[in-house]
Amino acid sequence: MAPITEEAVSSLKDMVGKLEARVQDLEGRLSNGSNKPKSVAEQMRIILMGPPGAGKGTQAPKLKEAYCACHLATGDMLRSQVAKKTDLGREAKKIMDQGGLVSDDIMVNMIKSELDNNAECKNGFILDGFPRTVAQAERLDDMLNHRNQKLQHAVELQIDDALLVARITGRLVHPASGRSYHKIFNPPNQDMKDDVTGEPLIQRSDDNVDALNKRLVTYHAQTTPVADYYKKTGIWRGIDASQEPGQVWKSLLGVFHKN
Ligand code: AP5
Hints:
Layout: H1 6-30, E1 45-49, H2 56-67, E2 70-73, H3 74-83, H4 87-97, H5 104-117, E3 125-128, H6 134-146, E4 153-158, H7 164-169, E5 171-173, E6 180-182, H8 209-233, E7 236-240, H9 245-256
Bound molecules: BIS(adenosine)-5'-pentaphosphate.
The site of BIS(adenosine)-5'-pentaphosphate has 34 residues, from α2, α3, α4, β6 and α9.
Binding site for ATP: 53-58, 171, 180-181, 243
GO molecular function, one term: AMP kinase activity
Keywords: ATP-binding, Coiled coil, Cytoplasm, Kinase, Mitochondrion, Nucleotide-binding, Transferase
Protein backbone atom coordinates (compact mmCIF):
# COMPACT_ATOMS: atom_id res chain seq x y z
CA MET A 1 0.00 0.00 0.00
CA ALA A 2 1.27 3.49 -0.90
CA PRO A 3 2.40 5.66 2.06
CA ILE A 4 -0.26 8.04 3.44
CA THR A 5 0.73 11.61 2.62
CA GLU A 6 -1.11 14.90 3.06
CA GLU A 7 -1.16 15.23 -0.70
CA ALA A 8 -2.86 11.83 -1.13
CA VAL A 9 -5.49 12.70 1.52
CA SER A 10 -6.15 16.07 -0.10
CA SER A 11 -6.47 14.50 -3.53
CA LEU A 12 -8.93 11.90 -2.18
CA LYS A 13 -10.99 14.63 -0.50
CA ASP A 14 -11.07 16.50 -3.78
CA MET A 15 -12.30 13.38 -5.58
CA VAL A 16 -15.01 12.70 -2.95
CA GLY A 17 -16.18 16.34 -3.17
CA LYS A 18 -16.49 16.10 -6.95
CA LEU A 19 -18.35 12.77 -6.72
CA GLU A 20 -20.81 14.19 -4.14
CA ALA A 21 -21.46 17.18 -6.37
CA ARG A 22 -21.99 14.89 -9.37
CA VAL A 23 -24.43 12.66 -7.44
CA GLN A 24 -26.44 15.69 -6.30
CA ASP A 25 -26.49 16.98 -9.86
CA LEU A 26 -27.78 13.65 -11.20
CA GLU A 27 -30.39 13.43 -8.43
CA GLY A 28 -31.52 16.93 -9.33
CA ARG A 29 -31.83 16.00 -12.99
CA LEU A 30 -33.76 12.82 -12.12
CA SER A 31 -36.41 14.80 -10.24
CA ASN A 32 -36.51 17.53 -12.82
CA GLY A 33 -40.30 17.46 -13.07
CA SER A 34 -41.01 20.47 -10.88
CA ASN A 35 -40.42 24.17 -11.55
CA LYS A 36 -38.65 24.61 -8.24
CA PRO A 37 -34.88 24.43 -8.63
CA LYS A 38 -33.25 21.58 -6.75
CA SER A 39 -30.36 21.75 -4.32
CA VAL A 40 -27.76 20.99 -6.92
CA ALA A 41 -24.27 21.62 -5.57
CA GLU A 42 -23.07 22.72 -8.98
CA GLN A 43 -25.62 25.52 -9.10
CA MET A 44 -25.16 26.97 -5.68
CA ARG A 45 -22.12 29.17 -5.77
CA ILE A 46 -23.52 32.17 -7.52
CA ILE A 47 -22.43 35.76 -7.97
CA LEU A 48 -25.12 38.32 -8.68
CA MET A 49 -23.72 41.53 -10.06
CA GLY A 50 -25.15 44.69 -11.56
CA PRO A 51 -25.24 48.45 -11.02
CA PRO A 52 -27.06 50.08 -8.09
CA GLY A 53 -30.78 49.45 -8.44
CA ALA A 54 -30.41 46.66 -11.02
CA GLY A 55 -32.39 44.31 -8.76
CA LYS A 56 -29.73 42.23 -6.95
CA GLY A 57 -31.38 42.71 -3.57
CA THR A 58 -34.81 41.96 -5.07
CA GLN A 59 -33.82 38.68 -6.73
CA ALA A 60 -31.20 37.33 -4.29
CA PRO A 61 -33.65 36.44 -1.45
CA LYS A 62 -35.65 34.35 -3.94
CA LEU A 63 -32.49 32.53 -4.98
CA LYS A 64 -31.65 31.96 -1.32
CA GLU A 65 -35.04 30.36 -0.76
CA ALA A 66 -34.97 28.33 -3.98
CA TYR A 67 -31.47 26.92 -3.44
CA CYS A 68 -31.31 26.85 0.40
CA ALA A 69 -28.04 28.75 0.19
CA CYS A 70 -26.86 31.74 2.17
CA HIS A 71 -27.32 35.25 0.78
CA LEU A 72 -24.31 37.43 1.51
CA ALA A 73 -25.02 41.06 0.69
CA THR A 74 -21.94 43.11 1.49
CA GLY A 75 -23.89 46.39 1.43
CA ASP A 76 -26.29 45.01 4.09
CA MET A 77 -23.34 43.82 6.19
CA LEU A 78 -21.81 47.29 6.07
CA ARG A 79 -25.12 48.95 6.91
CA SER A 80 -25.45 46.67 9.93
CA GLN A 81 -22.05 47.99 11.12
CA VAL A 82 -23.31 51.54 10.54
CA ALA A 83 -26.43 50.81 12.62
CA LYS A 84 -24.28 49.39 15.44
CA LYS A 85 -22.09 52.53 15.27
CA THR A 86 -18.85 50.52 15.17
CA ASP A 87 -15.59 52.15 14.02
CA LEU A 88 -15.90 50.26 10.74
CA GLY A 89 -19.52 51.43 10.40
CA ARG A 90 -18.54 55.08 10.91
CA GLU A 91 -15.79 54.85 8.28
CA ALA A 92 -17.96 52.84 5.87
CA LYS A 93 -20.87 55.29 6.05
CA LYS A 94 -18.68 58.15 4.83
CA ILE A 95 -17.45 56.05 1.90
CA MET A 96 -20.91 54.70 1.02
CA ASP A 97 -22.53 58.15 1.06
CA GLN A 98 -19.79 59.32 -1.32
CA GLY A 99 -20.42 56.39 -3.67
CA GLY A 100 -16.92 54.97 -3.15
CA LEU A 101 -15.74 51.48 -2.23
CA VAL A 102 -14.70 50.14 1.17
CA SER A 103 -11.22 48.55 1.14
CA ASP A 104 -10.70 45.15 -0.49
CA ASP A 105 -9.11 43.74 2.70
CA ILE A 106 -12.14 44.56 4.82
CA MET A 107 -14.60 43.17 2.30
CA VAL A 108 -12.65 39.96 1.60
CA ASN A 109 -12.32 39.27 5.34
CA MET A 110 -16.05 39.81 5.84
CA ILE A 111 -16.88 37.24 3.17
CA LYS A 112 -14.25 34.81 4.46
CA SER A 113 -15.66 35.03 7.96
CA GLU A 114 -19.19 34.29 6.69
CA LEU A 115 -18.07 31.34 4.58
CA ASP A 116 -16.14 29.96 7.57
CA ASN A 117 -18.82 30.48 10.21
CA ASN A 118 -22.27 30.88 8.71
CA ALA A 119 -24.00 27.48 8.79
CA GLU A 120 -26.41 28.58 6.03
CA CYS A 121 -23.44 28.76 3.64
CA LYS A 122 -22.74 25.02 3.80
CA ASN A 123 -25.17 24.39 0.91
CA GLY A 124 -23.69 27.19 -1.16
CA PHE A 125 -23.96 30.94 -1.41
CA ILE A 126 -25.33 33.85 -3.37
CA LEU A 127 -22.94 36.80 -3.33
CA ASP A 128 -24.71 40.13 -3.82
CA GLY A 129 -22.43 43.16 -4.18
CA PHE A 130 -19.20 41.15 -3.95
CA PRO A 131 -16.74 40.96 -5.67
CA ARG A 132 -16.75 44.58 -6.79
CA THR A 133 -13.11 44.84 -7.90
CA VAL A 134 -10.87 42.46 -9.82
CA ALA A 135 -8.68 42.15 -6.71
CA GLN A 136 -11.72 40.94 -4.73
CA ALA A 137 -12.56 38.44 -7.50
CA GLU A 138 -9.02 37.05 -7.47
CA ARG A 139 -9.00 36.71 -3.71
CA LEU A 140 -12.38 34.99 -3.77
CA ASP A 141 -10.99 32.46 -6.26
CA ASP A 142 -8.01 31.83 -3.94
CA MET A 143 -10.37 31.35 -1.00
CA LEU A 144 -12.50 28.85 -2.94
CA ASN A 145 -9.48 26.99 -4.32
CA HIS A 146 -8.40 26.32 -0.75
CA ARG A 147 -11.81 24.73 -0.19
CA ASN A 148 -11.76 22.76 -3.43
CA GLN A 149 -14.79 24.73 -4.54
CA LYS A 150 -15.57 26.61 -7.71
CA LEU A 151 -18.02 29.31 -8.68
CA GLN A 152 -20.77 28.04 -10.97
CA HIS A 153 -22.33 31.27 -12.21
CA ALA A 154 -21.60 34.99 -12.33
CA VAL A 155 -24.79 36.66 -13.50
CA GLU A 156 -24.82 40.31 -14.43
CA LEU A 157 -28.15 42.17 -14.25
CA GLN A 158 -27.80 44.51 -17.22
CA ILE A 159 -29.73 47.75 -17.38
CA ASP A 160 -29.32 51.21 -18.80
CA ASP A 161 -28.15 53.81 -16.23
CA ALA A 162 -31.03 56.11 -17.16
CA LEU A 163 -33.59 53.65 -15.74
CA LEU A 164 -31.92 53.50 -12.34
CA VAL A 165 -32.75 56.96 -10.99
CA ALA A 166 -36.46 56.15 -10.56
CA ARG A 167 -35.67 52.78 -8.98
CA ILE A 168 -33.18 54.17 -6.47
CA THR A 169 -35.04 57.31 -5.45
CA GLY A 170 -38.27 55.33 -4.92
CA ARG A 171 -36.73 52.48 -2.96
CA LEU A 172 -37.82 51.73 0.61
CA VAL A 173 -35.98 49.21 2.78
CA HIS A 174 -36.56 47.21 5.93
CA PRO A 175 -33.17 47.58 7.61
CA ALA A 176 -33.29 44.45 9.78
CA SER A 177 -33.97 42.00 6.93
CA GLY A 178 -32.68 43.95 3.91
CA ARG A 179 -36.08 43.49 2.21
CA SER A 180 -36.63 46.20 -0.36
CA TYR A 181 -39.77 47.76 -1.78
CA HIS A 182 -40.51 50.54 -4.22
CA LYS A 183 -43.00 53.36 -3.75
CA ILE A 184 -44.47 52.72 -7.23
CA PHE A 185 -43.05 49.50 -8.72
CA ASN A 186 -43.34 47.31 -5.61
CA PRO A 187 -45.24 49.10 -2.83
CA PRO A 188 -45.61 47.53 0.64
CA ASN A 189 -49.10 46.40 1.66
CA GLN A 190 -49.27 49.18 4.25
CA ASP A 191 -47.71 52.59 3.70
CA MET A 192 -44.06 52.66 4.92
CA LYS A 193 -44.40 49.32 6.79
CA ASP A 194 -42.59 46.02 6.18
CA ASP A 195 -45.05 43.34 4.96
CA VAL A 196 -43.59 40.64 7.21
CA THR A 197 -42.89 42.41 10.52
CA GLY A 198 -44.95 45.61 10.23
CA GLU A 199 -41.81 47.54 11.22
CA PRO A 200 -41.07 50.94 9.64
CA LEU A 201 -39.40 51.19 6.24
CA ILE A 202 -36.66 53.75 5.57
CA GLN A 203 -34.85 55.34 2.64
CA ARG A 204 -31.10 54.67 2.45
CA SER A 205 -28.84 57.69 2.95
CA ASP A 206 -27.05 56.90 -0.35
CA ASP A 207 -30.31 56.65 -2.30
CA ASN A 208 -30.27 60.12 -3.82
CA VAL A 209 -29.42 61.27 -7.34
CA ASP A 210 -26.05 62.73 -6.38
CA ALA A 211 -24.75 59.61 -4.62
CA LEU A 212 -26.27 57.38 -7.31
CA ASN A 213 -24.30 59.15 -10.05
CA LYS A 214 -21.08 58.60 -8.08
CA ARG A 215 -21.97 54.95 -7.45
CA LEU A 216 -22.52 54.48 -11.18
CA VAL A 217 -19.14 56.00 -12.03
CA THR A 218 -17.52 53.67 -9.47
CA TYR A 219 -19.45 50.70 -10.89
CA HIS A 220 -18.36 51.29 -14.48
CA ALA A 221 -14.73 51.95 -13.50
CA GLN A 222 -14.19 49.19 -10.93
CA THR A 223 -16.89 46.54 -11.30
CA THR A 224 -17.35 46.30 -15.07
CA PRO A 225 -13.82 44.77 -15.23
CA VAL A 226 -15.09 42.08 -12.83
CA ALA A 227 -17.64 41.05 -15.47
CA ASP A 228 -14.77 40.79 -17.97
CA TYR A 229 -12.86 38.65 -15.45
CA TYR A 230 -15.74 36.13 -15.33
CA LYS A 231 -16.24 36.29 -19.10
CA LYS A 232 -12.71 34.93 -19.38
CA THR A 233 -13.43 32.07 -16.98
CA GLY A 234 -16.60 31.20 -18.92
CA ILE A 235 -19.10 31.49 -16.06
CA TRP A 236 -20.49 34.95 -16.91
CA ARG A 237 -24.02 35.41 -18.22
CA GLY A 238 -25.85 38.69 -18.74
CA ILE A 239 -29.61 39.10 -18.40
CA ASP A 240 -31.95 41.99 -19.18
CA ALA A 241 -32.76 43.57 -15.81
CA SER A 242 -35.05 46.25 -17.28
CA GLN A 243 -37.86 43.68 -17.47
CA GLU A 244 -40.46 43.43 -14.71
CA PRO A 245 -39.21 41.50 -11.64
CA GLY A 246 -41.07 38.23 -12.45
CA GLN A 247 -39.54 38.16 -15.90
CA VAL A 248 -36.06 38.84 -14.50
CA TRP A 249 -36.58 35.89 -12.15
CA LYS A 250 -37.50 33.64 -15.08
CA SER A 251 -34.40 34.78 -16.98
CA LEU A 252 -32.28 33.96 -13.93
CA LEU A 253 -33.71 30.45 -13.69
CA GLY A 254 -33.08 30.07 -17.41
CA VAL A 255 -29.37 30.66 -16.78
CA PHE A 256 -29.13 28.07 -14.00
CA HIS A 257 -31.13 25.38 -15.77
CA LYS A 258 -29.71 25.67 -19.23
CA ASN A 259 -27.97 22.26 -19.21
P1 AP5 B 1 -24.98 47.83 -1.99
O1 AP5 B 1 -25.91 47.80 -0.85
O2 AP5 B 1 -24.48 46.55 -2.55
O3 AP5 B 1 -25.61 48.76 -3.09
P2 AP5 B 1 -25.59 48.69 -4.68
O4 AP5 B 1 -24.67 47.75 -5.34
O5 AP5 B 1 -25.45 50.12 -5.06
O6 AP5 B 1 -26.92 48.05 -5.04
P3 AP5 B 1 -28.31 48.42 -4.50
O7 AP5 B 1 -28.58 47.77 -3.20
O8 AP5 B 1 -28.52 49.92 -4.54
O9 AP5 B 1 -29.23 47.86 -5.69
P4 AP5 B 1 -29.88 46.44 -5.96
O10 AP5 B 1 -29.35 45.94 -7.25
O11 AP5 B 1 -29.79 45.54 -4.78
O12 AP5 B 1 -31.38 46.94 -6.20
P5 AP5 B 1 -32.75 46.49 -5.51
O13 AP5 B 1 -33.04 45.06 -5.79
O14 AP5 B 1 -32.85 46.93 -4.09
O15 AP5 B 1 -23.66 48.65 -1.59
C1 AP5 B 1 -23.76 49.92 -0.96
C2 AP5 B 1 -22.35 50.48 -0.76
O16 AP5 B 1 -21.58 49.61 0.12
C3 AP5 B 1 -21.49 50.59 -2.01
O17 AP5 B 1 -21.75 51.79 -2.74
C4 AP5 B 1 -20.07 50.55 -1.42
O18 AP5 B 1 -19.71 51.79 -0.87
C5 AP5 B 1 -20.20 49.57 -0.26
N1 AP5 B 1 -19.87 48.16 -0.66
C6 AP5 B 1 -20.74 47.13 -0.75
N2 AP5 B 1 -20.10 46.01 -1.18
C7 AP5 B 1 -18.80 46.36 -1.36
C8 AP5 B 1 -17.65 45.65 -1.81
N3 AP5 B 1 -17.71 44.35 -2.16
N4 AP5 B 1 -16.47 46.33 -1.90
C9 AP5 B 1 -16.38 47.62 -1.54
N5 AP5 B 1 -17.44 48.35 -1.11
C10 AP5 B 1 -18.64 47.74 -1.02
O19 AP5 B 1 -33.76 47.36 -6.42
C11 AP5 B 1 -33.76 48.76 -6.36
C12 AP5 B 1 -35.21 49.27 -6.42
O20 AP5 B 1 -35.80 48.94 -7.67
C13 AP5 B 1 -36.12 48.66 -5.34
O21 AP5 B 1 -36.98 49.64 -4.88
C14 AP5 B 1 -36.87 47.54 -6.10
O22 AP5 B 1 -38.17 47.34 -5.54
C15 AP5 B 1 -36.93 48.09 -7.51
N6 AP5 B 1 -36.82 47.05 -8.52
C16 AP5 B 1 -36.00 45.96 -8.50
N7 AP5 B 1 -36.16 45.24 -9.61
C17 AP5 B 1 -37.07 45.90 -10.38
C18 AP5 B 1 -37.64 45.65 -11.67
N8 AP5 B 1 -37.27 44.57 -12.39
N9 AP5 B 1 -38.53 46.55 -12.15
C19 AP5 B 1 -38.89 47.63 -11.43
N10 AP5 B 1 -38.39 47.92 -10.19
C20 AP5 B 1 -37.49 47.06 -9.69
